[in-house]
Design brief:
313 residues, alpha+beta, SH3 type barrels, Immunoglobulin-like, Ribosomal Protein S8, Chain: A, domain 1, 3 domains, six-stranded antiparallel beta sheet, five-stranded antiparallel beta sheet, 7 helices, 37% strand
Length: 313
C-alpha cells in the first residue's frame, strides 16, 4: 500500500510528511518541518485518500491539489549550480543523472555512504550545461541507503586555468526531494532534482576558492554553541523542578533544530550543578540516531560544565 516517497498524513493528527523508510508495520516519515517520526502503518493514509475520505475536501480544493500534482517547469536558477536528478522509471525505480548548469566542463566523482565509508558510485565528465545519465538505477524503497553523497568536482574550460577542486558532502531529505515532480533543465525529462548551489562565489568568473572558504559557505560544516542556563534562555526563576523540565525541553528542541539546519557540531553549556542535567543530556545523546559521538568540552574554555555533540553527516 505504501512506498518510499509517498506523501502521507497521520489520521490521528494534522501532521503530514514523506515516507523515508518502511520497517514492516512501522513507517518512518519525514515531516514538513524536517523531523523523522515512526508511525504505525494503520495510522497513515496517502494525502489524496486522507483528503477525500477524512477531510471531505471540496471540489475546488481537489482541483487545486490536482494542479499541484502536474509537472512543474523548472525555472533557470539565479546562479549557476550542479545537481543530482532522478528520472522516474516506475513506481519503485528512479534513474540518476548528474546535472551541470555551469558554462564550464566538470569532472565529477559521486560516492555513496555505506557502513560509515564513502564508496564510489559513478564518475564522468559533463560538458557545459549538460546532463549525464548514471547507468545504475536506484530503488526508492532503499532511499536511506543512498541519501548521503560525497561529490568531488573539478571545473575547467579550454584555454582557461584549472579551478580549485571542490568536495561536497550532502544528505538528501526525502521531504524536499520527493516534494514535487519537475522537468530537467536540458532534456525536459520528468523526475526529482536535488540542486546544489556553490554559493558565495561565482565560479563562472574564474574565481579560485580554497577548500576552507568553500566549506565555510555550507551550514553542514558549521558549529553552534548553546548556553542552557535558565537565565540565558529566558526562563523565569521559580520552582526548580519546573525550570529543569523547561531546560530539558529547550535542549531537545535545540538538538532537533541543529539537525534540521545541518549543523555539524554543537556545544552545550549545561553547568556542573548536581549533575542531573548533564546526565540527562548524555543519556539523550547516547540514544539519538543522528549523533555520531559526544564528549565533554575543553575544560580550559568551558570548565567542567559543557558537552560537545557531533552529528552524523
Amino acid at each position: 500500500m505504501f512506498k518510499v516517497g509517498d506523501k502521507v498524513r497521520m489520521l490521528r493528527s494534522s501532521e503530514e510528511g514523506i515516507i523515508v523508510r518502511i520497517k514492516g508495520a512501522i513507517i518512518d516519515i519525514e515531516t514538513t518541518d524536517g523531523f523523522e517520526l515512526p508511525v504505525v502503518a494503520s495510522d497513515l493514509s496517502k494525502i489524496s485518500e486522507a483528503e477525500n475520505h477524512y477531510f471531505n475536501v471540496s471540489q475546488s480544493q481537489k482541483e487545486a491539489t490536482s494542479a499541484l500534482d502536474q509537472i512543474i517547469e523548472r525555472k533557470k536558477p539565479a546562479i549557476e549550480q550542479i545537481g543530482l536528478a532522478f528520472e522516474i522509471v516506475n513506481d519503485f525505480l528512479i534513474r540518476p543523472y548528474f546535472i551541470n548548469e555551469f558554462n564550464k566542463e566538470v569532472l565529477f566523482v559521486l560516492s555513496l555512504k555505506k557502513n560509515g565509508l564513502y564508496v564510489n558510485f559513478a564518475s564522468g565528465q559533463a560538458g557545459a550545461e549538460s546532463e549525464i545519465r548514471i547507468y545504475e538505477d536506484l530503488n526508492k524503497n532503499t532511499f536511506e541507503e543512498w541519501s548521503k553523497w560525497h561529490i568531488d568536482l573539478l571545473f575547467f574550460g579550454k584555454g582557461k586555468e584549472v579551478l580549485q577542486k571542490r568536495a561536497i558532502e550532502i544528505k538528501i531529505k526525502a521531504s524536499s526531494l520527493f516534494k514535487e515532480e519537475i522537468s530537467f533543465p536540458f532534456s525536459k525529462k520528468k523526475g526529482f532534482i536535488q540542486a546544489i548551489s556553490l554559493i558565495q562565489e561565482d565560479l563562472s568568473s574564474d574565481v579560485k576558492l580554497t577548500a576552507e572558504s568553500f566549506y565555510e559557505s555550507y551550514s553542514f560544516n558549521k558549529t553552534k554553541t548553546i548556553d542552557l542556563h535558565a537565565e540565558k534562555i529566558g526562563l523565569q526563576l521559580g520552582n526548580a523542578e519546573e525550570i529543569f523540565e523547561q531546560q530539558k525541553s529547550f535542549f531537545i528542541k535545540e538538538i532537533d533544530k541543529a539537525i534540521v539546519e545541518n549543523i555539524m557540531e554543537i556545544t552545550l553549556i549545561h553547568g556542573v550543578g548536581n549533575g542531573h542535567f548533564k546526565n540527562f543530556i548524555h543519556k539523550y545523546l547516547s540514544s539519538h540516531d543522528q549523533v555520531e559521538w559526544f564528549k565533554e568540552a575543553q575544560k580550559e574554555k568551558f570548565g567542567y560544565g559543557a558537552t560537545i555533540a557531533h552529528f552524523k553527516p
